[in-house]
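Q: What does the assembled structure look like for these inputs?
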Amino acid sequence: KAGVTQTPRYLIKTRGQQVTLSCSPISGHRSVSWYQQTPGQGLQFLFEYFSETQRNKGNFPGRFSGRQFSNSRSEMNVSTLELGDSALYLCASSWGDRGQEKLFFGSGTQLSVL
Amino acid sequence: AQKITQTQPGMFVQEKEAVTLDCTYDTSDPSYGLFWYKQPSSGEMIFLIYQGSYDQQNATEGRYSLNFQKARKSANLVISASQLGDSAMYFCAMRDFGGNNRLAFGKGNQVVVIP
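A:
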């Protein structure tokens, strides 16, 4: 069974540009969540989707947005990139939206903003 | 708000020895879950073990066990018989089921297993 797949693995952008990251969850999983990881702030929750609906959102500016498609694949978009957006972006999936369920993570997308 | 604290500095552990990673948490929600994840240099977060706040027994998963002390709000991870492949960052995380229901992570512990 394939794991969580995130594309691209690495991305280099310049300030002001926008970027779209993709996440394909494990087959059958309906919940997808996104996290930002930086050396200074650690792992921070961005948002969570279940059956195409955003169920939870972290404390990030509106430049960060996401969506989930009917096949559970998810994308997150960051507009007007800032240097501080440089981070590892991790996607995780689970079967349902119950809190007890363990999340399966992808290897992440390393975004560098120059 | 949730708060997870991991304060130990980086650790060197001899192969085959046991290691304990400390984690304390703070929440006002009586229903919550505690998780430990491992992140090797490849970047992927790997689930290790889960403990629910109402679970009566400490969780175990192979070489991993969780020393859950609810009154002290402590959820330490014990890795028995360390292996070279255990070298990684280890993160404690918590999810408040009645609160914001977000998975919040601690800052992590770096473990290096030496032969």
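Chain A touches chain B at residues 33, 35, 42-43, 45, 48, 55-56, 58, 88, 90, 92, 99-100, 102-108, 110 (CB under 8 Å).
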